[in-house]
Structure formats: structure tokens, C-alpha cells
Amino acid sequence: MYIIFGYIASCLFSILFLPQLIKIINTKQVYNISYIFITINIAANSCNIVFALGLWYEGLAKQSLPILSGCSIAFIWSVLLLLLKIVYTRKYKKHNNYNTHFPPTVEGKKNLNVNEDKDFQGE
After folding, report:
1. Conformation bin of residue 106: beta by default, left when phi > 0, alpha when psi is -120 to 50
2. What is the structure's pLDDT at 88?
3. Dist. CA 61–CA 35, nearest whole Å
4. Which of 23, 53, 72, 73 is the residue whose CA sits 20 to 30 A from 47?
5. CA angle 121, 96, 35 (to 5 degrees)
């Protein structure tokens, strides 16, 4: 009975990054995604994959399958997220001649605050 929870968790881990990946692909904006978050996630999924393979090797294939499948798919999504972060950050820097990966600025302002900019208020 408890194995059902493993499969549910596996499905949830498998779809965990999909909304974020879809948003990044559509907007091509990755400046709010942390390299540290992605790196820790890849490391955690790698450890879980090794753990699940160890269980499989010990003869506990049925028990390790939810962990192995969920973490493998989450690992793939994490690597894809890292690649998108690298690609879109480089494109942004190259296109805008910026040395950072922060969002675009308006007339030298540090952030885009629509309420403070008269051009956006129609004045």
C-alpha cells in the first residue's frame, strides 16, 4: 500500500519543474532563477538516483522504482533548467551589453518601477 505514495511522489517530482520551464521558454527570462538552487537540486537528484540504484542492486527493485523514475526525470528537468539559465543569460548579456543577468533597466534606473516613471503614467 505504501508504494502508492512513492508513485504519487514520483509523478509530482516529474512535473515539478514543468511550469517553470514552460514560463522560461515562453518569456526567455531567467534572472530570478538561482544557480545555487539549480545546483543543489541537481546534486540532490543525483544522490537519490545513486540511492535508488543501490536499492535496485540489493534486490529491492520494486521499492526503488518510484525513487529512480521520479528523481531521474527531475534530474533531466533540472539540467534543462540550468542549460536554459546559461543560454538565456548569455543572450541577454550579449544583446544588452550588460555584465549582469538582472532585468532590463529604464533610463539608468536600477529597477523597472512603472509607478515612478512618468512615461508610463502618460504625463
Report:
1. beta
2. 85
3. 33
4. 23
5. 100
